[in-house]
Amino acid sequence: xxxxxxxxxxxxxxxxxxxxxxxxxxxxxxxxxxxxxxxxxxxxxxxxxxxxxxxxxxxxxxxxxxxxxxxxxxxxxxxxxxxxxxxxxxxxxxxxxxxxxxxxxxxxxxxxxxxxxxxxxxxxxxxxxxxxxxxxxxxxxxxxxxxxxxxxxxxxxxxxxxxxxxxxxxxxxxxxxxxxxxxxxxxxxxxxxxxxxxxxxxxxxxxxxxxxxxxxxxxxxxxxxxxxxxxxxxxxxxxxxxxxxxxxxxxxxxxxxxxxxxxxxxxxxxxxxxxxxxxxxxxxxxxxxxxxxxxxxxxxxxxxxxxxxxxxxxxxxxxxxxxxxxxxxxxxxxxxxxxxxxxxxxxxxxxxxxxxxxxxxxxxxxxxxxxxxxxxxxxxxxxxxx
Length: 386
Fold this sequence. Notes:
Elements: H1 12-15, E1 31-32, H2 35-47, H3 51-57, E2 93-98, E3 101-105, H4 117-121, E4 129-132, E5 141-144, E6 147-148, E7 155-157, E8 159-161, E9 165-167, H5 173-181, H6 187-197, H7 210-228, E10 243-246, E11 255-258, E12 263-266, E13 269-272, H8 276-279, E14 282-283, E15 286-287, H9 288-297, H10 316-341, H11 350-355
Parallel strand pairs: 2-6
Antiparallel strand pairs: 1-3, 2-3, 4-5, 4-7, 8-9, 10-13, 11-12, 12-13, 14-15
Helix pairs in contact: 6-7, 7-10
């Protein structure tokens, strides 16, 4: 990403004013790499009674089995205290559990210390979440179409309302950029440019150079496609495609990379080709592929606890996810290199945006929009009143 300079570049916090703190789960067992494991944990919780259920739940100051909370928006879970709950597990939903790691979450407000209902209200097929990485990460900003459930910085939805309505951008920004660039600018274009230009201090230099803008937006849209992992499946150039050369064991324990062979060994199983750029891709000090593998193969927790209930074996779905992740990381490494090569200098400064009455954004832009168009069930079946 471009280096930090002092040139009055506007801040991400002003360009995308509404942000939400990350979810705080309070316990790890409501997330897992597969939905069947979550349903087994739920069943084990509800089979326990009294103090045993309380212990299995892992209570905190924010949540116990006696807590009374509302449903999560759009999720038909129960609202009676978990101490009295019965019935089937709410259908798990796909979430971004860690950088580049899509897992599953039981969408039940009673299980989550701080679920951020305002994010659930605007989560749909149109939404894109910009997620600030921890300080020092090589990618200052991630993007995902899934609800972010990872430990990270602020979460900035691209849209303030469902259906891709009301972009979470400083009022007047789109019009000002379109006027300076002499071309139409969409909310996704602004996010794409931001992914290309954002600096470690989360300043976002803006330009009125039409060619530079077009190139930055093009690279940003490619990064968005890879980070969101939706649409057509990514492919490595030249017909190279990672695939399983030797069958993977039912419970692999080790992950070793052979740089000379460009092969990934999962015990006696082997996947290749695996470009070095994919293996070397890190978030901080952690290799992404190693963290992803560890999340699926870590030794079970203390017996008798819910985290001790784990998938019985390596699944075919995980193999497919691994092959795609290798491809995504290799392609994203190339995109990052092209983004870093762009010479981006701030041509539209924070002072310019202030003079145009774009900055500072009004206080209302920093607060969630009122998007409630249906009844939301509160504790014990009462309806939420807004």
